[in-house]
Amino acid sequence: xxxxxxxxxxxxxxxxxxxxxxxxxxxxxxxxxxxxxxxxxxxxxxxxxxxxxxxxxxxxxxxxxxxxxxxxxxxxxxxxxxxxxxxxxxxxxxxxxxxxxxxxxxxxxxxxxxxxxxxxxxxxxxxxxxxxxxxxxxxxxxxxxxxxxxxxxxxxxxxxxxxxxxxxxxxxxxxxxxxxxxxxxxxxxxxxxxxxxxxxxxxxxxxxxxxxxxxxxxxxxxxxxxxxxxxxxxxxxxxxxxxxxxxxxxxxxxxxxxxxxxxxxxxxxxxxxxxxxxxxxxxxxxxxxxxxxxxxxxxxxxxxxxxxxxxxxxxxxxxxxxxxxxxxxxxxxxxxxxxxxxxxxxxxxxxxxxxxx
Length: 357
Fold this sequence. Notes:
Layout (H helix, E strand, L loop, with lengths): L36 H25 L8 E7 L11 E3 L14 E5 L3 H10 L7 E4 H5 L5 H10 L2 E5 L6 H5 L1 H5 L5 E3 L6 H10 L1 E3 L6 E7 L6 H17 L8 E8 L5 E5 L3 H4 L9 H11 L14 H12 L15 H13 L9
Parallel strand pairs: 3-4, 3-5, 5-6
Antiparallel strand pairs: 1-8, 1-9, 2-7, 9-10
Helix pairs in contact: 1-8
């Protein structure tokens, strides 16, 4: 395997001076007093230990196991009214993906794509695996199978910020369901290599109108538990700052791999539902029901059963001593024999036999 490519010539955390199409990051929200970093460490250790066991099983059963990632999951109490195609860049202490060429990166650009291939060659940028122009997306990659193969071939997609609005129509929903949305980059930067390097080494929060968001924070095959914990603690305040209401609107926080269940790290208190009344524990509805019982409110009496015809007839028999004979039900086949006889006579031409007196 070739050695990892160095993405930066200088400090990767250095802030950029020019404007970008990415949403502006807000000031990170401080952790609440109920948040426990010890609990976060336990969750990371347990999740990675589970990943090691599952990976050993997959290596025996599968020929080419799929690469998994560690995701930060933030669940909110209320959905947001803000939805945008432009993600929020979150800088982490350690890259969430393995450095190229282990991670395949595709760059989506304007047409003609040859111009941008020459631009990358001039800047000596070798960590971009493929360059695809808009015309190729409209032609060669228009069929569903071609786009699905493009999705499988690359782990990350960068996109010229000038063509971001075209991406949902050209790529389809499969890229967004696989959480491989194109990341906007500015290809007019003087230091283009640093611009693309920062995009690859960062993680992103995609604003949605739902109540759950997932942010990739590490890859178990290239990160150890300490680096994963550092990325987790660095990403939580930045992600919560992007949520309307911040910590007041956060329901729970957890971590998971691509195929595991979520391990909880922090959960908010719900005093309105489970806090009880006057400091008592339990459900509010149960407390109200207990109050009504103590006040002596009787339950409504059961309604009397409706009187049927059978019960009324039994009363008459008991009073008068007369026994009712049930009326025989008329058969629907009465007269059918006579009709059959007449039909037979019409066929044979015979006369009906008279009965002897």
